[in-house]
Amino acid sequence: MKFDRNTVLGFVILAALFFGYFYVTNKQQSDHRKKEAIKKAYTDSVANANRSLADTLAGRTDSLRNDSVTRIVKAGTFQDAVNGTEQTVSVQNELMKVTFSNKGGQVKKVELKNFKGQDSTLIKLAATDFDQLGYVINTANNQTSNTADLHFNQVDSAANADGTKTVWFTLKSSDSSAASSIVHKFTVRPNDYMLDFNVELTGADKLLTQGNMNLSWQYSAVQQESDITFEKQNTQVGYVKDGTFDYHTIAKRSSKQFSESVNWVGVRQRFFFTILVAKNNFSSGNMEWSIPPDSAKTIVRSVANMKVQVPVASSASVPFNIYYGPSDYHTLKKYDMKFEKLVNLGQNIYAFVRPINKFIIMPIFDFLQGLTTNMGIVIALLTLVIRLLTSPLIYKSYLSGAKMKALKPEIAKLKDKFGEDRQAMSMEQMKLFREAGVNPLGGCIPALLQIPIFFALFSFFNAEVALRGASFLWANDLSAFDDPIKFGFHIPLLGSHLSLFNITAVITSFLISFYSMSMTPDQSNPVMKYLPYIFPIFLLFFFNRLPSALTWYYTVSNTITLILQIIIQKYIIDHDKILAKIELNRKKPKTKSKWQERMEQMQEQQKKIKDMQQKNRR
Question: Which domain holds residue 214?
Answer without folding.
Answer: 84-343
